[in-house]
Design a protein that fits this description.
By secondary structure, the protein is of the alpha+beta class. The protein has helices at about 40-50, 75-95, 115-120, 145-150, 155-175, 185-195, 215-225, 235-245, 250-265, 270-275; strands spanning about 5-10, 10-15, 20-25, 60, 65-70, 110-115, 130-135, 140-145, 200, 205-210. It has a five-stranded mixed beta sheet with strand order 4-5-6-8-7, with helices on both faces. A hairpin with a 5-residue loop joins strand 2 and strand 3 (about 20-25). The longest helix has 24 residues, at about 75-95. It is globular, with a radius of gyration of 20 Å. The chain starts with a strand and ends with a helix.
Length: about 280
Amino acid sequence: VIAKLLVDVGENRVVILPDGRLAARRRREAASTERTFEPIEKDALAARLLKTEFAGFKTNQTRRYLYLYNTSEEFSLATSRILETMFPGVANYAKAQKIAIVEPDVPLVVVMFRTEDEFQRYQRMPTGVVAYYNILDNRVVMYEESRLRAVKPELAIQQSIATIAHEGAHQILHNIGVQKRLSRWPMWLSEGLAEFFAPTTFGDRLKWKGAGQVNDMRMFELELYLKSRESDQPDGEMIEHTVIAGRLTSTGYAAAWSLTHYLAKSKRVNFNDYV
């Protein structure tokens, strides 16, 4: 298998395999070659994944994405519509800011499970997580039928669509060269950028709003938080806690979004240099 060298770590080499997964190989097992790295074709990858991991799933392919799903067609189409709109939007925004980008080396895989149980069997995640981007295998994974949907279906749809856009932003940023897949970024910046690129609208037509637009869900969270502290004098503590945090609460995500949004809009040159 011809893989692309990502980084040398001691006696190991971390490489990108043709399907986008990261793998560690002993140097003696991963000799350099002049042969060109060739990503796997989406047809071949789909056939392999259907045979090994996702038997019975449906597939859909676009220019950059491979979707595997056993969800409703409506959920699959909504997910695809958001991600297909986001990719050129995020890429064009980065180019406009003079941030160098590249075309993805490999197909972008998105896996959609119908139920939370299936999602959890695939990979155990903390309660409340409805989607995630896995840096190692380069996949976005999600599920459709959340428990919240049975109680507050409208809120569940809003949360689901916002999360799809957030995790999709992570995948895009890590595949166009803005972020390297094994680099360690400050939590506030990595998550703040994903929120900056992920605002969505709700209603009759769920869609991506555009890079740098107001993220309504995070703005609402901030409004509630600030109203609960109206008697406090601003002291910068919230921003300080957000910047040094190793993990973020939901309010922390909102603060990370607001800080990223402010810097991108008001301190653009310095912020782009920092990124």
